[in-house]
Write a structure and sequence with these properties.
By secondary structure, this protein is α+β, with helices and mostly antiparallel strands. The chain has two domains: 6-334, 3-Layer(aba) Sandwich (Beta-lactamase), CATH 3.40.710.10; 349-430, no CATH class. Helix content is 23%, strand content 23%. The chain has ten helices and 20 strands. It has an eight-stranded antiparallel β-sheet, with helices on both faces. An eight-stranded antiparallel β-barrel has the order 13-14-15-16-17-18-19-20. A hairpin with an 8-residue loop joins strand 17 (397-399) and strand 18. Helix 2 (63-77) crosses helix 5 (152-166) and helix 2 crosses helix 6 (170-179). The chain is globular, with a radius of gyration of 26 Å. The relative contact order is 0.13. Residues 20-326 form the Beta-lactamase-related domain. InterPro entries: AmpC-like (IPR050491), Beta-lactam-related (IPR001466), Beta-lactam/transpept-like (IPR012338), DUF7586 (IPR056008). This is CubicO group peptidase, beta-lactamase class C family. It comes from Streptosporangium canum. Residues 348-431 form the DUF7586 domain.
Length: 451
């Protein structure tokens, strides 16, 4: 994919210029990622007297959590843990040992948001043994699984889980298993030159106050890492599907699935497994925001068209929450995504004869073929349960999404070998409504349809 058009670049640059000036940010960088590469980069403000570049480091705060979560999912895929395991199985000795790994990843464990002691983001950290020793009954704020409650402490426990399984600290594991394979060589636990200094901007005057920066030690998995726009662009590409062998694509898709929403009925924001989710402008985005004293950052990715967007700034507060979605809106306005060209593909004859209408009772459904012998079953005319199914080695299909996710679809043939009906976890689909020759549960009235 080539860089964005000149007119698009100008509109994107104007948006971040308005942001930097209006929000009074010492410096601001932003990038658009398409098909795994930076298609546009822009910056405003100064770092050490010069415009920040793609290699200028900023602290990325809680984006660190997503990288820790990636190693946790690798451990799951290696059968070293189950997401339903209680954290006490892997990190014993805490008063909240019953909460599960999945609940910690999705911030549904009900733990307190912050660790005991002083404000951890602005003070030197403590060893993990000391942190665990300070935990008590007040660590649990809500019943596990009841609601979304963001917890930095929860990711401290997940970082310790990673360390105990890998035999190295969480940062070494993240570097070896995530950063190095993705080519993120400029993402580090502590700053390296050239890096931005974190500032607080006075609310009523145009003056700055440097913010402190410390090694968070036990709390580091919640927000320690520093990165660059170039490296964070590689992370955006990963979230959009360029996994580079770090995770199975199906595992990454699992992380992007909503486990909880954090804004009730509106459902514009939520969490998967270590990933924040948002819906904006017709897009469903996955990524994470980051906030530490002196720094703000966010990265979003849309795997449907392999687009990502990010920003990094060195201010404690002030950046607009809609900056990135507005950048995506500019991109969509100036260079709308073109769908891939349709091309015919081969279809196995035994599957081709299954396509077309099927009926669940009197309700009509359409069965269509997907790549690699997959199937799509969806109601005709809208309204109803639609699912995609992936072929299994035993001749059945496994539901991928919707109501039938994880359920089995089987083809039942007649004695002469012709297709009889579909059995979807006891629901029978027939070629005609309530086909009397099929094995419809409860039978079909012998007098048939009547006026």
């Amino acid at each position: 994919m080539s860089p964005v058009l000149e007119s698009t670049a100008r509109a994107l640059l104007r948006r971040i210029a308005v942001e930097q000036a209006g929000s009074r940010l010492p410096s601001l960088t932003a990038a658009v990622v398409r098909d795994g590469r930076i298609a546009w980069f822009g910056s405003r403000g100064r770092v050490e007297g010069a415009a920040p570049t793609e290699t200028t480091q900023y602290r990325i705060g809680s984006i660190t959590k997503s990288m820790v979560a990636t190693v946790v999912m690798r451990l799951r895929d290696e059968d070293r843990l189950d997401l339903l395991d209680p954290i006490g199985k892997h990190v014993p000795g805490t008063p909240v040992g019953e909460v599960t790994v999945a609940q910690l990843l999705s911030h549904t464990a009900g733990l307190t948001a912050e660790p005991p002691g002083q404000w951890w983001e602005r003070t030197p950290g403590m060893p993990v043994e000391e942190l665990i020793g300070l935990l008590g009954p007040e660590t649990a704020r809500h019943r596990p699984g009841r609601r979304f409650h963001y917890s930095n402490l929860g990711f401290a426990l997940l970082g310790e889980l990673v360390a105990r399984h890998r035999g190295v600290d969480w940062a070494q594991a993240v570097r070896a298993e995530v950063l190095e394979p993705l080519g993120m060589s400029q993402t580090t636990s502590r700053p390296r030159a050239p890096h931005a200094t974190g500032y607080a901007v006075h609310p009523w005057a145009d003056v700055l106050l440097p913010e402190p920066e410390h090694d968070a030690l036990a709390m580091a998995p919640a927000g320690q890492l520093w990165s660059t726009p170039a490296d964070l662009a590689r992370w955006a590409a990963f979230l959009a599907g360029e996994t580079a062998g770090v995770l199975d694509p199906a595992t990454l898709a699992e992380m992007r699935e909503p486990a909880i929403v954090d804004d009730g009925d509106a459902w514009t924001g939520g969490f998967g497994l270590g990933l924040q989710l948002t819906r904006a402008g017709g897009r469903r985005l996955a990524g994470h925001s980051g906030s530490m004293p002196g720094f703000l950052s966010t990265v979003w990715a849309d795997p449907s068209d392999r687009v990502g967007v990010l920003f990094m700034a060195n201010a404690t507060s002030g950046a607009s929450r809609t900056l990135l979605t507005e950048l995506l809106a500019i991109l969509d306005e100036h260079e709308p995504h073109l769908p891939a060209e349709w091309e015919p593909t081969a279809a196995d004859a035994d599957l081709l004869e299954l396509t077309g209408p099927w009926y669940w009772g009197p309700s009509a459904y359409a069965l269509r073929l997907l790549p690699e012998r997959g199937l799509s079953l969806e109601p005709i005319g809208g309204g109803g349960r639609a699912s995609r199914f992936v072929a299994q080695a035993d001749g059945t299909w496994l539901g991928l999404d919707g109501y039938y996710a994880g359920e089995r679809l089987s083809l039942v043939r007649r004695a002469d070998g012709s297709p009889g009906h579909l059995d979807l976890n006891t629901f029978v689909f027939t070629r005609t409504p309530y086909d009397p020759t099929a094995e419809v549960p409860g039978g079909v009235d012998g007098d048939g349809w009547r006026g």
